[in-house]
């Protein structure tokens, strides 16, 4: 696995939540990732962690947050999970980290490029392993359906949040916390990956496109 991804994988492993429903609040976001990167000056780490609300996941006793948008558990009606491969296949990587509306800071372009490549690399590696039968299916909480003011709404993770949710400890924490608040967690009924065998070539093509994006000179 390229060095770009190794530090992010290590960060995820170090910051995993405890098993079971969350106590208090747990969060991991783009600010943590930027602050942890070797390109970032130590004196900026504390300030950059304030950028977490631009991207990432937060789970608390009050609610769940994807990429800065929070929904209280009292308003959540259901959480629907999708295969990680399907999430990628249906455009889940469109919310690129380097396109987040982050303010300027030193080494911004280089650091965001590194974080973007790391996130895509981790997602790609997990999807390829799953596609080749080397891992159990990874299903992420992809749709948080909740009661809006006028109609039901849906909270969905961007690419960065999906990387965090692909970690088994984070998934287990979110789902356990949801169930502790009476929220059902179910597979999406219209999971397009039900016919994954028939779409294998399309999926492989999609993964190749993601791989090309990782190695694109414009990402640095």
Textual characterization of the structure:
With 220 residues, the chain is of the alpha+beta class. The chain has one domain. The protein is built from 8 helices and 8 strands, in the order αβααββββααββααβα. The protein has helices at 3-14, 30-36, 45-48, 84-89, 108-131, 159-165, 168-180, 200-214; strands spanning 25-29, 56-60, 63-66, 69-72, 76-83, 139-147, 152-155, 184-187. A hairpin with a 2-residue loop joins β3 (63-66) and β4 (69-72). α1 (3-14) crosses α5 (108-131) and α5 packs antiparallel against α8. The chain is globular and about 45 Å long.
Defining traits:
8 helices; four-stranded mixed beta sheet; 220 residues
Q: Biggest sheet: strands side by side, in what order?
A: 1-2-3-4
- Which spans of ≥5 residues are poorly predicted at pLDDT below 50? none
Domains (count): 1
- Estimate percent helicity: 40-55%
The largest β sheet comes out as:
4 strands, antiparallel
Radius of gyration from CA coordinates: 17 Å
Give the rounded overall mean pLDDT.
Answer: 81
Got a strand count?
Answer: 8
Distance between the termini: 17 Å
Oligomer: single chain
Give the topology, please.
Blueprint: H1 3-14, E1 25-29, H2 30-36, H3 45-48, E2 56-60, E3 63-66, E4 69-72, E5 76-83, H4 84-89, H5 108-131, E6 139-147, E7 152-155, H6 159-165, H7 168-180, E8 184-187, H8 200-214
Parallel strand pairs: 5-8
Antiparallel strand pairs: 1-2, 2-3, 3-4, 5-6, 6-7
Protein name: GPP34 family phosphoprotein
Organism: Mycobacterium deserti
């Amino acid at each position: 696995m390229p060095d770009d991804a190794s530090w992010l994988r290590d960060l995820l492993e170090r910051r995993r939540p405890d098993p079971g429903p969350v106590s208090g609040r747990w969060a991991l976001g783009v600010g943590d990732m930027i602050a942890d990167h070797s390109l970032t000056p130590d004196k900026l780490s504390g300030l950059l962690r304030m950028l977490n609300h631009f991207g990432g996941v937060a789970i608390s006793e009050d609610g769940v947050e994807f990429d800065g948008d929070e929904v209280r558990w009292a308003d959540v009606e259901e959480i629907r999970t999708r295969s990680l491969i399907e999430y990628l296949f249906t455009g889940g990587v469109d919310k690129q980290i380097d396109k987040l509306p982050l303010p300027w800071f030193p080494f911004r372009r280089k650091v965001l490029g590194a974080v973007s490549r790391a996130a895509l690399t981790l997602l790609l590696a997990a999807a390829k392993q799953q596609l080749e039968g080397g891992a159990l299916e990874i299903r992420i909480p992809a749709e948080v359906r909740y009661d809006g003011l006028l109609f039901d709404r849906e909270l969905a993770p961007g690419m960065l949040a999906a990387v965090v949710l692909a970690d088994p400890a984070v998934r287990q924490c979110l789902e356990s916390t949801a169930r502790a608040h009476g929220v059902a967690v179910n597979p999406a009924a219209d999971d397009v990956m039900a016919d994954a065998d028939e779409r294998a070539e399309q999926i492989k093509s999609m993964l190749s496109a993601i791989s090309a994006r990782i190695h694109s000179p414009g990402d640095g």
